[in-house]
Write a structure and sequence with these properties.
The chain is mainly alpha-helical and 141 residues long. It contains 6 helices and 2 strands, in the order αββααααα. The mean pLDDT is 96.
């Protein structure tokens, strides 16, 4: 389901080269193509680090990201064909890492509850949410 979410995001991202430089409001935040890609990537990495640490019996590193609360100067840059190619390579590889990792786990590992944390299955479902890509949407005119 994470690969499907990434595929959906990349389908939308193909239209983002048409972005005219105005951030798209979504709730109390704004999004741009680069910000959406940054958030999707960071989200996949953040939870991957959490899962790997838990499976290894290591403490997880606390999350100190500003996430979508900030819009950086880089987020405001034009989104080019080259950016799309880079995002496609990055996100498809991350999705594959997730698929391989999740596919290697037993149902017991996927559903093991730990105090104050989602199960790994719940994390996977959470990562299948396409909110960031949908916030920018399809920019074809």
């Amino acid at each position: 389901m994470i690969e499907q979410a990434v595929s959906h995001a990349l389908r939308l991202a193909r239209s983002w080269t048409a972005w005219e430089g105005v951030p798209v409001p979504a709730g109390d935040r704004v999004y741009t193509p680069h910000k959406a890609v940054r958030r999707i990537t960071d989200h996949l990495i953040d939870h991957l680090a959490e899962v790997e640490a838990r499976l290894a019996g290591a403490p997880t590193i606390p999350d100190h990201w500003h996430a979508s609360a900030i819009t950086t100067a880089a987020d405001l840059a034009p989104f080019t064909e080259e950016d799309l190619a880079e995002a496609t390579s990055r996100l498809t590889r991350l999705a594959q890492i997730w698929s391989v990792r999740l596919g290697s786990l037993t149902p017991e590992q996927l559903d093991r509850a730990e105090p104050g944390a989602w199960t790994i299955r719940e994390i996977a479902v959470h990562l299948s949410d396409t909110y960031y890509a949908d916030a920018v949407g399809d920019l074809r005119r």
